[in-house]
Automatic annotation (TrEMBL):
The lineage of its organism: Bacteria, Bacillati, Actinomycetota, Actinomycetes, Bifidobacteriales. It is an enzyme of class 3 (hydrolase). It is found in: Cytoplasm. It comes from Bifidobacterium hapali. GO terms for cellular component: cytoplasm; Holliday junction resolvase complex. Residues 196-266 are annotated as: Small ATPAse domain (RuvB-S). Keywords: ATP-binding, Cytoplasm, DNA damage, DNA recombination, DNA repair, DNA-binding, Helicase, Hydrolase, Nucleotide-binding. InterPro entries: AAA+_ATPase (IPR003593), AAA_lid_4 (IPR041445), DNA_helicase_Holl-junc_RuvB (IPR004605), P-loop_NTPase (IPR027417), RuvB-like_N (IPR008824), RuvB_wg_C (IPR008823), WH-like_DNA-bd_sf (IPR036388), WH_DNA-bd_sf (IPR036390). Has 3 domains, the large (RuvB-L) and small ATPase (RuvB-S) domains and the C-terminal head (RuvB-H) domain. The head domain binds DNA, while the ATPase domains jointly bind ATP, ADP or are empty depending on the state of the subunit in the translocation cycle. During a single DNA translocation step the structure of each domain remains the same, but their relative positions change. Its main location: cytoplasm. Belongs to the RuvB family. Residues 65-198 form the AAA+ ATPase domain. The gene is ruvB. This is Holliday junction branch migration complex subunit RuvB.
């Protein structure tokens, strides 16, 4: 299942989970206060930052708007933040829309025809643009031209309108779903990766400064290791830890406060939550470690199979708790150990 940036309804149970990478509740607003505004303040992703810096410096020196930019990667890793930073660094306005918000090619035509020279047009979830809008965008990106339809029915005529040069920044969580003609029109594609713990620690320390939360000792580390490599989750955990500090009248937050606050939300030391643990438990206790099919597994944990597949599994697989085999899902030794149990046999025998 896909996250719907407009309605936040793409993932049902996901939207209730503290460790969801998609925004929940009013987070789009609270994300805003923690967004860095310059490339310097953007934590981590050093290679991508260096590439982007060069790309922007060259455009500035040439005194032309930069080529179109595609930002690809899982939710919550900073694609929107980077788009805003690019506009800031260039000192130009940014217009924000998304694939699902554009229902007809005409919606896109009217946005394009109102862009000022040099402006950045940010299209989130660009892989979800309807096909006619996508085709209109190819021409606009390449030739800086849009065909505006005037009138209706047989008498309708198309009037070509020349656009000033502008920069499209597309963001996608599904790069593979982008048709190649669209992908080919981006001069620079940036792939965002999950963040290592040390980078998340720095990010949490920066956010804590912004929120006025004083962190002691390993407090940032304890949040970082539970953040599933994702800045949005790191910032969310920090906000819940801040709640804990406020309610307990703490002047500063130590590692034990972090552990207590996050235990309350059933997030364990590896960032697994109730549903992740339920999935691992089901495989281990009902199927002696697996293999087990997705539908059976989902029925046991009482969850939609899409949620298990797209929300739990990617992290469990990435962290080595689970493997997907042709026969079904298998819990690894790490999963057994995490549950405090002894594996029945070496899972590698199953391949
Ligand atoms: N590298 C970073 N440094 C500092 N803060 C970051 C970084 N990456 C993300 N954040 C913060 O994490 C939050 C989520 O980031 P953002 O909205 O840019 O993610 P996204 O990739 O656009 O997500 P989605 O795909 O769901 O739209 C924001 O508060 C943002 O400021």
């Amino acid at each position: 299942m896909e996250y719907d940036a407009q309605t936040n309804t793409g993932a049902n149970e996901e939207s209730l989970r503290m460790v969801s990478a998609a925004p929940i509740g009013n987070e789009p607003v609270s994300d805003e206060e923690l967004r860095p505004h310059a490339l310097d303040g953007f934590i981590g992703q050093p290679l991508l930052k260096a590439q982007l810096q060069l790309f922007l410096d060259a455009a500035r020196k040439r005194e032309v708007p930069p080529d179109h930019i595609l930002l690809a990667g899982p939710p919550g890793l900073g694609k929107t933040t980077l788009a805003m930073i690019v506009a800031n660094e260039l000192g130009v306005p940014i217009r924000v829309t998304s694939g699902p918000a554009i229902q007809h090619a005409g919606d896109l035509a009217s946005i394009l025809s109102s862009l000022d020279a040099g402006e950045v047009l940010f299209i989130d979830e660009i892989h979800r643009l309807p096909r006619p809008a996508e085709e209109l965008l190819y021409i606009a990106m390449e030739d800086f031209r849009v065909d505006v339809m005037v009138g209706k029915g047989p008498g309708a005529t198309s009037i070509p309108l020349t656009l000033p040069r502008f920069t499209v920044i597309g963001a996608t969580t599904r790069e593979g779903m982008l048709p190649s003609p669209l992908r080919a029109r981006f001069g620079f594609t940036a792939h965002l990766d999950f963040y290592p713990h040390e980078e998340l620690e720095k990010l949490i320390e920066r956010s804590a400064d912004v929120l006025g939360v004083k962190l002691d000792g390993q407090a940032a580390h304890e949040m970082a290791v539970r953040s599933r490599g994702t800045p949005r989750i790191a910032n969310r955990l920090l906000r819940r830890v801040r709640d804990w500090a406020i309610v307990h009248d703490l002047d500063s937050v130590g590692p034990d406060d972090v552990k207590s606050a996050l235990e309350l939300y059933q997030i364990d030391a590896e960032g697994l939550d109730r549903l992740d643990i339920a999935v691992l438990n089901a495989i281990v206790t009902h199927f002696n470690g697996g293999p087990v099919g997705l539908n059976t597994l989902s029925a046991i944990v009482g969850e939609e199979s899409e949620t298990v597949e797209t929300v739990c599994e990617p992290y469990l697989v990435r962290e080595g708790f689970l493997v997907r085999t042709p026969k079904g899902r298998v819990a690894t030794d790490k999963a057994w150990a995490h549950l405090g149990l002894t594996p029945r046999e070496d899972v590698s025998k199953l391949f």
